[in-house]
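Protein in question reproduced for absentees:

***
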Amino acid sequence: MLQNELFNNVLRDFDAGYWELYNDPERELWSQKFYTSLGYKDQELAPSIDFFFEKLLHQEDVETFRDNFLNYRRNAINFKQHVKIMTKEGDYKLFRCATNDELPVNIKSEINLVFFFEIKLEPEQDIAKDNFYYKETAQMTATGSWYVDFLKKKSFWDFETKRILEYPDDYIPSLKDSASYYAEDCRQQAADLFFNCTMAGTPFNTEIKMVTANKRVFWVRAIGKPVYNENKDIIGIRGVFQDIDEVKKKELRLQRSIDIIASQNSRLFNFAHIVSHNLRSHTSNLSLLVQLIEGIESPEEKINLIKEIKQISHSLNITIEHLNEIVAIHSNKDQKKKTIKFQDSLHLVTNSIGQMITTSKTQILSDFDELLQIEYIPAYLESILLNLITNAIKYKHQERDPVITIKTYIANNKKYLTFSDNGRGIDMKLFKDKIFGMYKTFHYNEDAVGIGLFLTKNQVESLNGKITVESEVDKGTTFIIEF
């Protein structure tokens, strides 16, 4: 027996019997209190789990207890349940069975323990009360129970599962339709979990998206564990799932807000760095030239230095204009949005750079059938299209004319625009983290400034959107904008 003062005090307070479980089943011990609660002396019964299943445990409780017990031994999955155990006189007593971590106090033990607390109420009365509480708890917590029977090749749902999934009470779930109960992008996840549970006995506890009978997609927490027979073979999977859609969506919105804040902080740091570095560079050069001019008497040399001042002044002006554009984006993000047709915005942009498109022999293909229009700031959408189109033309492949494909679509209730070209492409291994940086260029064009994509990203993200890029050298680039 365990010699532990805290442990013994707890048992004395609980007045409970218990089992001590070891790696070797032959070493399992049943406490004196467990024997006396059933009317036996410890010499009268051997601590055998097989004997317990066959002779002592009520047959109604064997299947559930076996599953819980084997999962506790093999996978350290704690459990608690009510069981009816036969006494020496042949009557059944009701016990509340619980493992270490299911106790109201923390018992630190290196040995796995199973406790049996005798319930003094009549079993029938207590079971009826438990059924009432189970139904109330299931409804209040939106928790449904399910069972997959491999032998009968059937699935079973309780009343709350059918309610959550919006199926009628007489609906019979089918294993053939099991994939349809999950969102399309989560079906592989569900298949992997069930396969591992079935083949390796690996329990699962995960968050996954399901689909109701009315095609509503929502988040659930799904918990499952294998069901064993008397030969310790897996014959099914039993579990529960809880509707956590509202909580999960809040969590995702919070995470999205955190990501946006992190992105904004990164841009703010970048902006501050550029202001500090670029403006300081210009002003330092101006200050140096002024000092030189003051120390030079030759008019010709002064004129040459003044020309340099003009060039620095021009560069300073361009830098300030770029910084003003960035400030304007975040100042104007609260402008009133309008319903804009993508085709109209594209028409305005292509008209404004018609000569550039014609000279470069650029072909623009558009498909806006799935998403014709959007609520957006018109100037932003035009600026985004303008930057992407002019970039595609500037960085066209030397061996082919530019072909640009612009398409809109809807997926998972989100609106997207894709912009693809057949240009030089970008080496994603080298420049993946720098593509949207300010003054970052990836080709050697003399007119490359590195401001267009930076502005585009700021415009998209200022309205809580997201822009990503896929590219391959010598094949082309695709930008994906999620509005």
